[in-house]
Design brief:
Blueprint: H1 3-22, H2 30-45, H3 49-64, H4 70-76, H5 78-81, H6 84-107, H7 124-144, H8 166-183, H9 201-222, H10 230-243, H11 248-255, E1 263-268, E2 274-279, E3 284-288, E4 297-301, H12 303-310, E5 322-325, H13 327-337
Parallel strand pairs: 1-4
Antiparallel strand pairs: 1-2, 2-3, 4-5
Helix pairs in contact: 1-3, 3-4, 3-6, 6-8, 6-9, 7-8, 7-9, 9-10, 10-12
Length: 339
């Protein structure tokens, strides 16, 4: 089944569920509605964990394609109604904890002054302090749930004076975030630097940061990053594309590319996932699947490699990537959209 068809079916099902849940009694008999929803929930609960995560992601993508408002919020609740997003949420928290432990093990006992070539001007100490700050900041947000922006620099995260102690400090910050995230309600509202102002935003955000900075550390120490799990990398890539329009230093350069109508396609050879990015309208839109338009440029690599390409940890000339079409489009995107 194609990605386009899966997206269409998920969007139709989410819309139908929302209509059933919000219909007036005169329109739909309540007993019929309850039976239909219970049966549908039972069927979906029988899916395997990977399929449940995939379906939850499709529901969320369908919701986020709607403009902010009541309908978007109703669609975002579809996954919760069927118990899909709780499993996905906790799985993501577990993934954050696992990659954080891997990061701590990678940098523990190394020279903190080791340069990090993928973060010019930084050394391993800087990288570890930054990542520990991200975890500590996120812990504060999911615990206190502020409604307005909180900057990490305004929090007393207190890294140690000795950079050789950063790995243990980082590990403590990461454990704190994982514990706070597990205890939090994923649906609770909180300010976020993106499209989803709920607690559930933060495990995905922190996971993406941890994946990329783990790769930074591995490249600094061994010259290459270990392969990323395709599903985890794909979710991080989804998160990046969903959040990018809300990040001024990414959104503004992309809005001035002057490539309206151009289409950049990213194809993951390890999982078959495809992302289609269409430029125009003062920014870009994206969807999973091949879409209808022929790509101006198509990049093929493993999902984790595509994630690191978008974060400019790998260059487009790296032999990991197969490019067809307009190379200038990819170069323009990377120049404008990298973190």
């Amino acid at each position: 089944m194609s990605d386009a068809l899966l997206n269409a079916l998920a969007e139709a099902l989410a819309g139908l569920v929302t209509a059933v849940e919000t219909s007036d009694e005169e329109v739909l008999d309540p007993d019929t509605a309850v039976k239909w929803l219970e049966h549908t929930g039972h069927v979906l609960a029988g899916l395997g964990a990977a399929d449940r995560r995939a379906l939850e992601g499709l529901f969320r993508e369908a919701a986020l394609r709607e403009p902010p408002g009541a309908r978007r919020e109703e669609l975002l609740r579809v996954s919760a109604g069927f118990g899909l997003d709780e499993d996905t949420y906790l799985t993501t928290v577990d993934a954050v904890a696992d990659r954080a432990r891997r990061y701590a093990a990678t940098v523990r006992g190394t020279d903190p002054a080791t340069p990090v070539p993928t973060c010019p001007g930084w050394d391993l100490g800087d990288l570890t302090r930054h990542l520990g700050t991200v975890h500590g900041w996120a812990e504060h947000l999911v615990t206190t749930r502020p409604t307005t922006r909180v900057r990490a620099g305004d929090l007393p995260l207190e890294p140690p004076a000795d950079p050789t102690a950063y790995p243990d400090w980082f590990a403590a910050r990461a454990e704190g975030f994982a514990g706070a995230a597990r205890a939090a309600d994923p649906e609770a509202p909180v300010w976020s630097p993106g499209a989803d102002p709920h607690v559930r935003h933060y495990p995905r955000h922190v996971l993406a940061e941890t994946l990329v900075h783990l790769a930074d550390a591995e490249i600094a120490l061994t010259g290459t990053a270990r392969p990323l799990d395709p599903g985890t990398a794909a979710d991080a890539l989804d998160h990046f594309l969903t959040t990018a329009p809300y990040v001024p230093w990414i959104a503004e350069p992309l809005a001035h590319l002057d490539r309206d109508g151009a289409v950049l396609r990213l194809s993951a050879r390890d999982s078959g996932a495809v992302w289609t990015l269409a430029l125009g309208g003062g920014g870009f839109s994206w969807s999973r699947g091949r879409g209808g338009a022929e790509p101006t440029a198509d990049v093929t690599a493993d999902a984790g490699e595509l994630l690191l390409l978008l974060h400019r940890r790998y260059g487009a000339d790296d032999p990991r990537f197969t490019l067809t079409g307009d190379r200038d489009l990819l170069d323009d995107w990377l120049a404008a959209g990298g973190l």
